[in-house]
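Supplementary Methods S3. Input chains for the assembly prediction are listed below.
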Amino acid sequence: MQRIGVFVCHCGSNIAAAVDVKQVAETLKNEPNVVFAADYPYMCSENGQQLIRNAIKENQLTGVVVCSCSPRMHEATFRKTAEESGLNPYMVEIANIREQCSWIHKDRMTATAKAVVLGRAAIAKVRLNAPLTAGESPVVKRALVIGGGIAGIQTALDIAEAGYPVDIVEKKPTIGGKMAQLDKTFPTLDCAACILTPKMVEAAQHENITLYTYSEIEEVKGYVGNFRVKIRKKARYVHEDLCSGCGVCTQKCPSRKGGNEFNLSLDKRGAIYIPFAQAIPNVPVIDTEQCLKFKTGKCGLCQMNCAAKAIDFSQQDEIVEQEYGAIVAATGFNPISLDKFGEFGYQTYPDVVTSLEFERILNAAGPTKGHLERPSDGKPPKTLVFVQCVGSRDTSGRGKEYCSKICCMYTAKHAMLVREKYPDTEVYVFYIDVRTPGKNFDEFYRRAVEQYGVHYIKGMVGKVYDDGAGHLMVRASDLLANEQLTISADMVILAAATEPDKTARSLATMLTASMDTNDFFTEAHPKLRPVESPTAGVFLSGFCQGPKDIPETVSQAGAAAVKVIGLLSKNKLKSNPCVARSDSLVCSGCSNCEKVCPFGAITYTEAEVNDGTGKEIRRIAVVNEAVCHGCGACTVACPSGAMDLKGFSSNQIFAEVDAICR
Amino acid sequence: MIYDYYPGCTLKNQASALEKSAMTAAEALGVELRELPEWQCCGGVYPMASNENAHKLPSVRALQSAKDNGRDLLTVCSACYHVLKSVNYDMKNSDTVRNKVRSYAEIDYGGETRVLHFLEMLRDDIGFEALRKKVTNPLTGQRIAPYYGCLILRPSAIIGFDDAENPRIMEDYITSLGGEAVVYPFRNECCGGYMAAENQTLTEKKCRDIIGSAKAHGADCIITACPLCYYNLKKYSDIPVRYFTQILCEALGIGEDEA
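Predicted structure tokens for the full assembly:
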């Protein structure tokens, strides 16, 4: 006979304002098996938990129902509370009367009635609960970081420093990511390369870090603590271990038509190339679409000139298999394509560029050696127009609804750098709002306006066109003056919206990590668990979780590393005991459950079964409890009712439904 | 090829040249345009108020007739095209509009009819390549500036005629007739439209900007598909403004006098 205690939380006024909590406690006290019921302003507080602990002891409770917030919020808290009083933690059930009741109902009568029904269902369930014991699984003490930009590098360095081995998998031929392409960084204007390249070198040289560049994730299997990952090392056609990085091959290559990705195709590179001077590893890669040897079978100049004999046209992709305890997604972002934004003339006029292209133009290692020259004729521009929110905060369906967050600051930076180096220029910035929250950010923007005389105009650009005489014209609205403006510009720079890297979606599928509608990875809790994915063992670092600047990315990268270190420091992980089990007496061995299991947790075995009519050898399903996630798909697929989920048995669920319908 | 044809009021009055040239060219191309019996005015302007449905009824009746005839509904006028296509979109996608119109007019119509512009018929059904082969009097040496205006392009998600910022159907059309298409940035700007009735200064500025932009890019004539654009541009233009169908007649060797 169960002895159940019911604890109704006010959650301050969150629940109590809409639900008569005292009445809920009093009503539920009359439910069968309930021997204790109480309400309290904050059940999760130390005093509230003490109330539960005392009640368990004084009333010899065998089951606990807490009517409070979502179990995602405090189920773990109250399970621990019960455990401290000697109760099995799985004898606790939560009735969610906040998110699913008080927050959505205005009428006190109906909200109270609903809270009672939800409490009743939880009581009906807990009456059928049985104590469960969590199993244990070992932890592989190695982490995988996917993405080698500043987010991935920082996460890997922090994990490596704590003494755990880390692998970085980067799909490009070099680590460094977007930050390597930047010229200066706001708000301090220090050079991006000067602060990034030492970290790149440190990552490459760290004894605990292994770099897989020009590599992609092929397959992810397993679960927290025990992931098994296949990494595809794409053929570079250059042996990393032999190459000395002298670069002679890149100079001898006669093919010069490939767009230089690092400079966003503002200039050309050879078919065999090192992305940029500080690339890590400093090993070239062959672009087979440009290489004459691959296209025509003739050439091979690079191979002839390679003293180290590192070039191998027959190199094949290689699959590396590795086990990891934790995985960090750090897949970063890209500017969106501006194909749908014809009004800005990006496709039509060479002197209309994106901000990232402008970043390369300003950079001393860029296509113009850092001289401000416009792409069409190489002349220094005198009038520059910056347009913010090109595709950001866009509700027309062509761009992104969110704020890309970094554009206001980098545009202020660009405007300031131009005015600083070229005081004879006129610089205009068109904006919807200037958003500069952040340490020393607004001061930075004000410097652009007050000290550098940048013309900030509130309003959007409607059209960029040529007047037929070779001048670029920008037509825009000035919302404060309530008039239309036309500016003759030499260059137009578009702050294109940002979006998660395209590979993030397929990676999320492999990781079974959830994403939002914009393809940003979803965090386990937007405020309290911002660097964890809801999928256990998967962590998030940098822009792949949402727009971030460099300081924020580095902070989050460190936070993700701490979570990984915490996980890897454990020798064993408690597994979820709410897993499937098969009743061998009922199982017919039909294989339906095996087919629907997404984790490959079900196998079959020949076993001796005695169902009372005599012994026989039968094929029956067996669940591997370490692999089972407790999703319940098999229990639905099972035609004979042999499959059931511990803690969520069919009996329990039917009892809940009965209690609701009573 | 047979289409149900919706002429619209303007083509029967002010813009008779547009209808005449369209019909002549269609005949030469072996296309039969069957004018819907008892068609009613499309209203000229698509009602923007979300609860204004009475003005949509004439369009729905035309769309329904075409559905009953089992034919596509073709129009030549930009404004009629805009209204028919917008109403058709509502009937297909808005339960509210569909239910209201159905119960008011006792019409069982759900946006099934394909509405197409004469230019789309040329591009999608005949094909510009096939059209090129029928040209007997190519417009060689003529630098023609296509003027789109707003109604035929926007809102692009509903009208779906072409890319509203960088359209190319008229350019391709001119090229297939042997002419030289002048690409100029103001081809998709507004001419001022009905503002001509109350603010002539504004329409004059808009039109002069468009004409200026076309000329600056080397145009010697402008073509349009919209009677209102034609009316506004013609008033201020010092280069010829023609309906797009008139150059088709010329290229097909029918002669503009006949059209």
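The CA atoms of residues 173 and 625 of chain A lie 41 Å apart. The mean pLDDT of chain A is 95.
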